[in-house]
From TrEMBL:
Belongs to the binding-protein-dependent transport system permease family. LivHM subfamily. It is found in: Cell membrane. Keywords: Amino-acid transport, Cell membrane, Membrane, Transmembrane, Transmembrane helix, Transport. InterPro entries: ABC_transp_permease (IPR001851), BCAA_transport_permease (IPR052157). It comes from Goekera deserti. One of its GO terms (molecular function) is transmembrane transporter activity. CDD domains: TM_PBP1_LivH_like. This is Branched-chain amino acid ABC transporter permease. It is a multi-pass membrane protein. Its main location: membrane. The keyword Hydrolase does not apply. The chain crosses the membrane at residues 16-38, 58-82, 94-114, 144-161, 190-209, 215-234, 241-262, 274-292.
């Protein structure tokens, strides 16, 4: 039983990491109808920015604020000057641009900060004695920071989309940009805001989750995390905030249980096992577990 509790805690922590990044993907999709395949590398870039701030002997919370602000500006600029011009052509052009950005940001990281692995401090105290016992499991500061961040982001986004005019405009633009423009919505501003918010969330997530990453801060830190987060967003439903969190937690727990209890699979095949399950679910329910099924009139 003790081993099971430890696996569940570890898996839910990893799942919270996936959920946090998945939420940034949901924001872009709900605001623009686009999946940002460069989200992980944009988050990694601003996480390196946060590391540079900490290297100047400034507090981690200052680095978090700088990274979040940088992520917002970066996301808005990418949408305005790269995505929006090519979106007028077709969706495939947007996909190519985003895949190109994936490699560009990763190359910039190596060019500016080098390929050496760096250590990023946790936002909360993370010493040997800084933990809360949950049965046999221990929750340290870096773990608590991810959980708290995920809950706060989920609450804030829920309020944004359900209780504000801005959230309503974002949903309207994603559904039909031309109709939203005719209704008086400033589509360009909404698009930039959506990408900016997603960039800010991804940047904050990068700072929070990097202390938990096995390789700490390196050029490969966000790759596996982004793939699992994208899977969580697809499984939960690209337009569902709750779905992203539930799917992220489910994937994290499932990976932990597969590693611990399925002989012969191990950590090398745990992600493959999870992805196979996700594909099977999406074959039955393409919109995801919590996504909205679109109806087309003919």
């Amino acid at each position: 039983m003790d081993v099971l509790v430890e696996r569940l805690v570890a898996g839910s922590t990893e799942g919270a990491v996936y959920a946090l990044i998945a939420l940034s993907l949901v924001v872009v999709f709900r605001g623009t109808g686009t999946i940002n395949f460069a989200q992980g590398e944009m988050a990694l870039f601003t996480t390196f920015v946060a590391w540079s701030v900490i290297a100047r002997d400034l507090p981690v919370w200052v680095a978090l604020l700088v990274a979040t602000a940088s992520g917002f500006v970066l996301g808005a600029l990418v949408e305005r000057f790269l995505v929006r011009p090519v979106r007028k052509r077709n969706d495939m052009a947007v996909l190519i641009v985003l895949l190109g950005l994936f490699t560009v940001f990763n190359s910039l990281d190596g060019l500016i900060w080098g390929g050496e692995t760096k250590v990023l401090a946790s936002l909360l105290p993370n010493g040997p004695d800084d933990y809360v016992a949950l049965g046999p499991a221990r929750i340290y500061g870096d773990t608590a920071a991810v959980w708290i961040g995920t809950v706060l982001v989920l609450i804030a986004l829920t309020v944004l989309f359900r209780c504000t005019r801005t959230g309503l405009h974002m949903r309207a633009v994603a559904n039909d940009g031309e109709a939203a423009a005719l209704a008086g919505v400033r589509v360009g501003r909404v698009l930039s805001l959506s990408w900016g918010l997603a960039g800010a969330i991804g940047s904050a997530a990068g700072v929070l989750v990097t202390p938990l990453a096995p390789a700490q801060l390196s050029l490969l830190t966000m790759l596996a995390i982004f793939l699992s987060a994208a899977a969580a967003a697809l499984l939960g439903g690209l337009d569902s905030l709750v779905g992203a969190v539930v799917a992220g937690l489910s994937i994290g727990v499932l990976e932990a249980l597969v590693i611990g209890y399925v002989p012969g699979v191990g950590s090398n095949l745990s992600e493959t096992t999870v992805l196979v399950i996700i594909v099977l679910v999406l074959l039955v329910r393409p919109q995801g577990l919590f996504g909205t099924k679109k109806l087309e009139r003919v």
